[in-house]
């Protein structure tokens, strides 16, 4: 028995501990998960109702072409339906891209640290992964990424805003980059957090699709739309690019519930806007906290914040966990002295910041004694 050799070095995805397990282990009544950047306000009521209504059709295979959702998304974005591909989460669209374009003869360029799925899927296809370190302030080094591109490069990944640093790339910087990328290279712009961005110069890349047949835009319903459990995301690109990926999409990869919920959710922009507004108010509390405690943080356009506490990330993680907050240690994310915290509700944020401030106090008491 011999699988593809590259599979033997790969660790399986380690999911965060489920809340129920953490509660039992630590004897806590309440455990709050601020680890996966989900929407703390849930999802649109209309989306919830759509899921309930869809239950009646549970015995029937979903519409493999996601016709209803395709129509809604194409109307919302102002693109043709044939320019869309739907995945079981954006994760699956990333998989489609890698499977369609990467072979062991190719390479792919990405930032480091960035979203882990690009590298994972590229490695599985046996492609060479060229990682370009983020700048000191957590931004993509677009110039060096361009330098890394050669005739064997197939895909370059741009995570905008970047997970886990939260930084964004401006419209001007992205367009200038795109113009310099050779036509044979796909530029994948992962915009999972677009709904949370407030920067005036954050780009709207949809109009660029007409001009750049090598551009793919990735979006998801898992974050601001609050539908992470349903696994639905999509890619937008030229018809030619989508057409080449369609045959490798499993026939029924997205569910009836996901179609119904996402179609309702995209019509309820009020919910998304409301979530994004509250997120910004709460995010600013984290920024103030960091300023008060002289902690470096990465400027975020998302619903999470990466904070440098100056001690091992696993230690910060364990301390916060002992207080009932599940977060993400920077050690697993490439920022060894950082903690990544998803922005929760007002009460959740108050709690996690209080815990963080206790940790800082305990550290100073220890270092003084
Ligand atoms: C969460 C996330 C996704 C989307 O994940 P889904 O598979 O759609 O749940 C994609 N890219 C980034 C950068 C993310 O953080």
From TrEMBL:
<dbReference type="Pfam" id="PF00155">
    <property type="entry name" value="Aminotran_1_2"/>
</dbReference>
<feature type="domain" description="Aminotransferase class I/classII large">
    <location>
        <begin position="30"/>
        <end position="356"/>
    </location>
</feature>
<keyword id="KW-0028">Amino-acid biosynthesis</keyword>
<comment type="subunit">
    <text>Homodimer.</text>
</comment>
<protein>
    <recommendedName>
        <fullName>Histidinol-phosphate aminotransferase</fullName>
        <ecNumber>2.6.1.9</ecNumber>
    </recommendedName>
</protein>
<dbReference type="InterPro" id="IPR050106">
    <property type="entry name" value="HistidinolP_aminotransfase"/>
</dbReference>
<dbReference type="InterPro" id="IPR015424">
    <property type="entry name" value="PyrdxlP-dep_Trfase"/>
</dbReference>
<dbReference type="GO" id="GO:0004400">
    <property type="term" value="F:histidinol-phosphate transaminase activity"/>
</dbReference>
<keyword id="KW-0032">Aminotransferase</keyword>
<dbReference type="InterPro" id="IPR004839">
    <property type="entry name" value="Aminotransferase_I/II_large"/>
</dbReference>
<comment type="similarity">
    <text>Belongs to the class-II pyridoxal-phosphate-dependent aminotransferase family. Histidinol-phosphate aminotransferase subfamily.</text>
</comment>
<dbReference type="GO" id="GO:0030170">
    <property type="term" value="F:pyridoxal phosphate binding"/>
</dbReference>
<dbReference type="InterPro" id="IPR005861">
    <property type="entry name" value="HisP_aminotrans"/>
</dbReference>
<comment type="pathway">
    <text>Amino-acid biosynthesis; L-histidine biosynthesis; L-histidine from 5-phospho-alpha-D-ribose 1-diphosphate: step 7/9.</text>
</comment>
<feature type="modified residue" description="N6-(pyridoxal phosphate)lysine">
    <location>
        <position position="223"/>
    </location>
</feature>
<keyword id="KW-0663">Pyridoxal phosphate</keyword>
<dbReference type="InterPro" id="IPR001917">
    <property type="entry name" value="Aminotrans_II_pyridoxalP_BS"/>
</dbReference>
<keyword id="KW-0808">Transferase</keyword>
<dbReference type="InterPro" id="IPR015422">
    <property type="entry name" value="PyrdxlP-dep_Trfase_small"/>
</dbReference>
<keyword id="KW-0368">Histidine biosynthesis</keyword>
<dbReference type="InterPro" id="IPR015421">
    <property type="entry name" value="PyrdxlP-dep_Trfase_major"/>
</dbReference>
<dbReference type="GO" id="GO:0000105">
    <property type="term" value="P:L-histidine biosynthetic process"/>
</dbReference>
